[in-house]
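Q: Hi! First time doing this. I have a protein sequence and I read that you can turn it into a structure. Is that right? Here it is:
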Amino acid sequence: MTTLLPLAGRVALVTGASRGIGRAIAARLAADGADLAIVARTAEALAATRAEVEGLGRRCLALALDVSDAKAAADAVKRVVDELSRLDVLVNNAGVTRDGLLMRMSDEDWNAVLSVDLSAAFYFCRAAARPLARSPAGRIVNVSSIVGLIGNAGQSNYAAAKSGLFGFTRSLAKELGSRKVTANVVCPGFIETDMTSGLPEEIKKSSLKSVPLGRLGSGADVAGVVAFLCSDAASYVTGAVLPVDGGLAIGGFGG
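A: Yes, that's right. Below is the predicted 3D structure, encoded as C-alpha cells:
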C-alpha cells in the first residue's frame, strides 16, 4: 500500500530559495510531495536547489527576479499558475541585512531592508491571494526572525521589518480565513547557514550561552516547522508566530 505524501499534488512557491533556510524549505516541501517554484536574484544561484528538487522527482520552476519589485512578483505568481496549473503554498523567505547603529544608519540601508524583508512579502501575498483562495488548502508562511521578537542592537531596520511581518500576517489570517487560507510566521533563531559559518568560534560559543538547547539550529529544523504549517495537520493553525530558536527568545541574546 502506497502512503500518500502530505503535500502530494500541491504547488509551493518559495522565495530566497538559493541557499540556507530557503533551500532547506524547498527541499523539504519537495520531499513531502510538492512541486516547486523557487525564487532568487539569479538563475545560477538557484541551480543547486533546482537540481535537488528535481532529484526528488518533482517539477521545479526557477524564477530569477528582484523580490522587491512589485511587478516582478506579480508576474512570477502568474507564471507559476500558468506553468504549474495552480498555487497552494507561498513561503516568503527572502531577506537581507544592512546592519548598523541607528545614529549611523543611512536611508538607503533602512529602505533596502524594509523593501526586501517586508514589502516583498506584501507583493507576493497580494499577487498570490486569489490563486491560494482557489486551493483547497491555501497556505502562507512568512519567515521572520527571532530578532523581530526581541530586537538586537545594530539591527533596527531588520527588527522593524521582521516584526512588521507579525501584524501583516495576522491581518492576512483574518482576511483570508473564510477562504480556508491560513497565514503563519516562523521565527528562526541562531541557524547554521553560510552567514553564520564564517563567524569566529568565540562569537558562536558566546551566542550559544543564550540558547537553552545548547546548539545552533539547522535549516532542516526550520523547514520541518514550515512543512507542518503547510500540511493538512495544521489546517486549524492560523495567525501564529512560532519561534524556531532552541529557546533563545526566553532570555534574549543577553541571556
